[in-house]
């Protein structure tokens, strides 16, 4: 699979990443090489093989649905770039 | 004091040869004199001296353990309350976590003194420590070469005997490969053995924390403190922690069945000096009574391609949390919300991190998911099954940790695939969730070579015993680079 600069722009948009236009060509070449490298997997016969998601095949542990954390909003918001009245601020979304 | 192991320092402190305050002060001084290595991102002299004083007080009360008062360093991927935790990224350059990682609080509770945070590849993505926002770490054996990665700062700091031990993380070899390239010992525990709580996530089905030190005995002491159940990591395994140090004995080599995978010794692109050193190490194991057997791990060559689908896929998901809203880098004057996300991430992440996020995004995108991600997960099972079959016949698997010794700075930085192949012998272990360690096993052209020993799930005690036995027979682990000052 070969990736061109337009596809880099599309992937970067999906990943919400600003990529400089002058870097797009280098990214296109690197991504193409990496995808060519991993494409050898396509030649492996995996019929009947179950995908492995967890190396020990353990299932997710559940916990009782009860309050376990105290309110630490002020502490956590102290490291935020921009807050007001306990809210995180972002540029206006709805006019 | 600076060429002593953790075990020796613990004994010296207990005998009163020095105090932790004295030891910590001289450790901080040694670190300041070794800035050319760039092994640290942040030093914490004030908290270190306070912890040292507290350790001395605990010892005076008769409450000292093997780590009480011993200086260590943490990879800058572990959250430390009140101390900047950057993950070597511009994204987290100003991030001061409001809580400690499990590993950090465990080691503090054991009395260890943290002197600072070590340099690393950005978000642990790299095999040479060249992707750090804070610049590359240099290998103390030859400062024109890399220390390996991603735990390169921890490795260089221990190799230069600045600290006797440090923490690391290993997603595809990030403890073992730098340990090999800098001539120290490093252990990646079984997936789930050590809690990942407070450890900044890269690839969650592969990430695991572990210790780095000069000897297997010291790895045992550190792992003892780091391991244990923690309900805050949903993949942490609730299973008793054995007494690793007691299990070392005088080395568990007699009768040990050691498998040599044909594929690890016949692989293309392995330095002949590496193969020679590892073969000599295997001879030493045989002479000590180990039973050496040839085995096969037929899907070995597929491990790196599988990893470079699964790890970027998980990374693209994990790193979506860095959005410029709640913490971390935020761009100036965003035009709208999408601009805020895109520019904050575009400015905050370095090139290798962006590359992996994009590979992962592509592999998970509609129309490609089955061909890349599901396929990789299927081959992942085949790789794991190869190991399961091997462990029916042998107790541990031995081979080289890395295909080469330390390479020059810049040698592979323009060729991602060549860089990825630095981890050809370590990556399969993460895919299978197995424990493995690297110990020094000689030199090639004056640069260290590592012997990798891979064990079955939760068989860390046997692995450490074998490594300890090997270190009773050899003195490679005592060799240290000569540095000025």
TrEMBL record, chain A:
Domain of life according to the entry: Bacteria
Keyword annotations for this protein, in alphabetical order, are:
ATP-binding, Ligase, Nucleotide-binding, Protein biosynthesis
Q: What is its EC number?
A: 6.3.5.-
Asked if the keyword Ligase belongs to this entry, the reply reads yes
InterPro entries named in the record: Asp/Glu-ADT_sf_sub_c, GatC
UniProt key word Protein biosynthesis: yes
Q: Which reaction does it catalyse?
A: L-glutamyl-tRNA(Gln) + L-glutamine + ATP + H2O = L-glutaminyl-tRNA(Gln) + L-glutamate + ADP + phosphate + H(+); L-aspartyl-tRNA(Asn) + L-glutamine + ATP + H2O = L-asparaginyl-tRNA(Asn) + L-glutamate + ADP + phosphate + 2 H(+)
Q: Which family does it belong to?
A: Belongs to the GatC family.
Q: What does this protein do?
A: Allows the formation of correctly charged Asn-tRNA(Asn) or Gln-tRNA(Gln) through the transamidation of misacylated Asp-tRNA(Asn) or Glu-tRNA(Gln) in organisms which lack either or both of asparaginyl-tRNA or glutaminyl-tRNA synthetases. The reaction takes place in the presence of glutamine and ATP through an activated phospho-Asp-tRNA(Asn) or phospho-Glu-tRNA(Gln).
- Subunit info? Heterotrimer of A, B and C subunits.
Name-wise, this protein is Aspartyl/glutamyl-tRNA(Asn/Gln) amidotransferase subunit C
Organism classification, top ranks? Bacteria, Pseudomonadati, Pseudomonadota, Gammaproteobacteria, Chromatiales
Q: Which gene encodes it?
A: gatC
TrEMBL record, chain B:
Q: Which InterPro entries match?
A: Amidase, Amidase_CS, Amidase_dom, AS_sf, GatA
Keyword Protein biosynthesis included in the entry's annotation: yes
Give the protein's recorded name: Glutamyl-tRNA(Gln) amidotransferase subunit A
Ranges for domain Amidase come to 22-464
Q: What does the sequence similarity comment in the record state about its family?
A: Belongs to the amidase family. GatA subfamily.
- Reaction equation(s) it catalyzes: L-glutamyl-tRNA(Gln) + L-glutamine + ATP + H2O = L-glutaminyl-tRNA(Gln) + L-glutamate + ADP + phosphate + H(+)
On subunit structure and binding partners, the annotation says:
Heterotrimer of A, B and C subunits.
Source organism of this protein record = Spiribacter onubensis
Q: HAMAP family from the xrefs?
A: GatA
**Which residues are responsible for catalysis?**
75 (charge relay system), 150 (charge relay system), 174 (acyl-ester intermediate)
EC numbers: 6.3.5.7
Instruction: Please give the function described in this protein's UniProt entry.
Output: Allows the formation of correctly charged Gln-tRNA(Gln) through the transamidation of misacylated Glu-tRNA(Gln) in organisms which lack glutaminyl-tRNA synthetase. The reaction takes place in the presence of glutamine and ATP through an activated gamma-phospho-Glu-tRNA(Gln).
Give the EC class as a word.
ligase
